[in-house]
């Protein structure tokens, strides 16, 4: 009997040791350290027993030699995060690992998110039965890297006594609490107002440069105090990779616009990606899940595929070229052409057709020359824009001289004989078919006069073309030329339009004087722009404004958005006729004029009359290379809503509402 008692006693002791030996061999309430040459890892508990609900606060602790690192849950361009396998544990229900804010680490162009020196990953453990002890067996797999990366496995054991005794604090509780405080707080619609940071207006801006499609995630971050050096982390589907964030701050550093490049594997971008945004700064961190809408970086280009977008832009280019015929820049050529046809008394239909076809060929050929120049400048890395010739005093002066000479000719003061091929236009432009070279030169000169002009739809077409490849640029410029040449092609197709004109007579004197006055008015308009350019800033006489405009300031935009304001940015110039039409018909009147500059809507103007690299870069960010251009910002759309060239009251008011203006 005594021997049986001894045997049973030894059996109980052995069983106890089998269960509790790992804990007895380690520090109180922690597993044994598993050590390697570079690191040590163990499990720790923040409480002495299971809680009444079977829960317990645990932690996975790493200690690393200087320079060695383990990885965050989303490691970045390389690496593998630690994994825990709980197989073999008893009374285990689940264990959720939480990840403190990591560090950003870059090497050889690769960016990773890591922990160095010492880190504890908090674990929310839950047992099946709170009244039974939990025997934990954790197999930890992790990768530790310095100049080389080494994978390790560690088996860690820990026993948590049952909840029959109220849990108390362990020596590890404070360390666990310190690292748990570094875990980003999850923000949602209910608790966002109580968070240190807020994330608003996330959207993905897509555009195409040459043959490459680019995407950028944009969102607005607001801080209750001041941002110092925020860490921005973006997680998404495995097919997406995220570049280094760019952060622009407001003057008080309480608001930041964050832009993160996105790269899709194989160029296949998911339709509605769900992203997790993490923002950390000065000990605070917030995590928020968003489903950002996809938006085009070039207004008017659809997301429905490159082929459909190109067809749409080609149609817009044709329309823009057609409207150029109505712009004052091209008026001198139209005047000369009309007088040439009238001077020939209508002329022979065959000769008229030949002359107008030659003029059309001159227009289209000249646009192809412009396309070639744009391609060459773009390949050389130079900035390319449409209408920027009007920023050059020498160009305006030359145009005024040419227009003055043509006007003098129309008034009968003298006959114009300009040097070279241009001189043939005045007397032998081919309207009646006498000089094909003169007719061709007329088309070339029409293109020259059209280049500084801004017409509706022109900015969209040029902007799209200059962000594409060679084929797209040539196609868009060809359609612009075809649009400008359409009136001439119509006469070539139906010569009766020209031959039906009255024979020369006294009425031509009145027509010449009318057209001469139009040319003088055009020259006076150019002179007013020239005076603006050569006068010192602030010395020009400005007409009184109905709206209180602020000067353009990209940083101030962020300040205003952070304050809950809606911002209307108007990029304009004294030489932009379409800008003046928008101003007269939409901006200065009606509901738009009522809201601008008062209440919650701030009016901000970017004056591009003179060359301004900051404004040029601002336009190109939206894929634009000409004006007019208008953008609406607000808390609902911090990345901005780009408006079309021709504004309508309904379109602007809709943008105000989407940006956050309350009705």
What integer is the average pLDDT? 78
- Specify the overall morphology: elongated
For the largest beta-sheet, the strand count, sense and barrel status come to: 6 strands, mixed
Span between termini = 93 Å
Q: Which strand-content bin applies to the residues?
A: 25-35%
Number of helices: 17
| Low-confidence segments | 13-26, 298-308, 416-433
- What radius of gyration results from the CA coordinates? 36 Å
Computed structural class? alpha+beta
Helix content: 25-40%
Can you offer a commentary on this structure?
The structure is a single chain. The radius of gyration is 36 Å and the shape is elongated. The chain is built from 17 helices and 26 strands. The protein is 37% helix and 26% strand. The chain starts with a helix and ends with a helix. Mean pLDDT is 78; it is low at 13-26, 298-308 and 416-433. The protein folds into 4 domains: 2-183, Sandwich (Immunoglobulin-like), CATH 2.60.40.1250; 197-296, Immunoglobulins (Immunoglobulin-like), CATH 2.60.40.10; 306-534, no CATH class; 549-659, Glutaredoxin (3-Layer(aba) Sandwich). It has 663 residues and is an alpha+beta fold. Strands 13, 14, 16, 17, 18 and 21 form a 6-stranded mixed β-sheet that branches. It has a 5-stranded antiparallel β-sheet with strand order 1-2-3-9-6. A 5-stranded mixed β-sheet has the order 22-24-23-25-26, sandwiched between helices. Strand 25 (629-634) and strand 26 (637-643) form a beta hairpin. Helix 4 packs antiparallel against helix 8 (436-450), helix 5 (349-379) crosses helix 8 and helix 7 packs across helix 8. The relative contact order is 0.09.
């Amino acid at each position: 009997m005594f021997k049986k008692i001894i045997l049973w006693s030894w059996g109980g002791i052995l069983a106890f040791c089998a269960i509790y030996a790992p804990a007895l061999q380690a520090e109180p309430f922690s597993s044994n350290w598993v050590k390697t040459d570079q690191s040590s890892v163990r499990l720790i508990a923040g409480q002495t027993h299971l809680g009444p609900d079977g829960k317990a606060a645990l932690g996975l602790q790493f200690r690393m030699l200087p320079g060695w690192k383990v990885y965050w849950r989303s490691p970045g361009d390389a690496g593998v995060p630690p994994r825990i396998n709980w197989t073999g544990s008893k009374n285990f229900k689940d264990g959720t690992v939480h990840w403190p804010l990591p560090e950003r680490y870059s090497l050889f162009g690769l960016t990773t998110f890591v922990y160095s020196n010492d880190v504890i990953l908090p674990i929310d453990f839950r047992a099946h039965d709170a009244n039974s002890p939990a025997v934990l067996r954790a197999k930890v797999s992790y990768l530790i890297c310095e100049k080389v990366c080494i994978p390790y496995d560690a088996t860690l054991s820990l026993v948590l006594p049952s909840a029959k005794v109220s849990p108390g604090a362990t020596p590890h509780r404070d360390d666990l609490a310190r690292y748990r405080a570094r875990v980003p707080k999850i923000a949602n619609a209910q608790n966002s107002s109580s968070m240190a940071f807020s994330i608003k207006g996330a959207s993905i801006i897509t555009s195409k440069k040459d043959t490459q499609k680019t995407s950028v995630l944009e969102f607005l971050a607001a801080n209750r105090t001041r941002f110092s050096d925020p860490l921005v982390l973006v997680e998404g589907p495995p097919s997406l990779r995220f570049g280094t964030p760019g952060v622009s701050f407001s003057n008080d550093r309480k608001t930041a616009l964050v832009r993160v490049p996105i790269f899709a594997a194989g160029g296949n971008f998911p339709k509605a990606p769900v992203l997790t945004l993490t923002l950390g700064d000065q000990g605070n961190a917030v995590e928020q899940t968003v489903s950002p809408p996809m938006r085009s970086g070039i207004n008017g280009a659809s997301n429905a595929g490159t082929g459909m977008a190109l067809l749409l832009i080609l149609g817009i280019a044709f329309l823009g070229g057609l409207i150029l015929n109505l712009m004052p820049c091209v008026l001198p050529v139209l005047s000369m052409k009309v007088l040439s046809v009238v001077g020939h008394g209508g002329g022979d239909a065959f000769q008229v057709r030949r002359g107008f076809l030659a003029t059309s060929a001159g227009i289209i050929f000249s646009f192809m020359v412009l396309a070639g120049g744009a391609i060459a400048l773009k390949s050389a890395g130079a900035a390319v824009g449409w209408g920027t010739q009007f920023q050059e005093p020498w160009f305006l002066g030359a145009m005024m001289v040419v227009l003055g000479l043509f006007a003098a000719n129309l008034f009968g003061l003298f006959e114009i004989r300009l040097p070279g091929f241009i001189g043939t236009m005045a007397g032998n432009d081919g309207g009646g078919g006498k000089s094909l070279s003169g007719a061709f030169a007329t088309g070339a000169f029409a293109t020259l006069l059209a280049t500084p002009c801004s017409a509706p739809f022109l900015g969209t077409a040029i902007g799209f073309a200059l962000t594409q490849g060679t084929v797209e640029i040539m196609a868009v410029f060809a359609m612009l030329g075809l649009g400008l040449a359409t009136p001439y092609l119509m006469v070539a197709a139906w010569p009766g339009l020209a031959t039906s004109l009255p024979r020369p007579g006294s009425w031509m004197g009145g027509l010449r004087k009318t057209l001469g006055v139009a040319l003088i008015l055009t020259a006076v308009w150019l002179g007013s722009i020239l005076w603006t350019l050569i006068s010192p800033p602030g010395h020009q006489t400005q007409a009184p404004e109905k709206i209180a405009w602020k000067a353009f300031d990209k940083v101030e935009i962020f300040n205003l958005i952070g304050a809950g304001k809606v911002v209307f940015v108007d990029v304009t110039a004294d030489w932009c006729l379409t800008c003046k039409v928008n101003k007269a018909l939409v901006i200065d009147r009606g509901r738009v004029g009522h809201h601008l500059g008062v209440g919650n809507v701030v009016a901000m103007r970017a004056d591009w009359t003179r060359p301004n690299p900051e404004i040029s870069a601002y336009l190109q960010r939206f894929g634009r290379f000409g004006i007019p251009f208008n953008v609406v910002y607000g808390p609902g759309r911090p990345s901005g809503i780009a408006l079309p060239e021709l504004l309508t009251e309904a379109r602007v008011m809709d943008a105000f509402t989407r940006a956050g203006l309350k009705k």
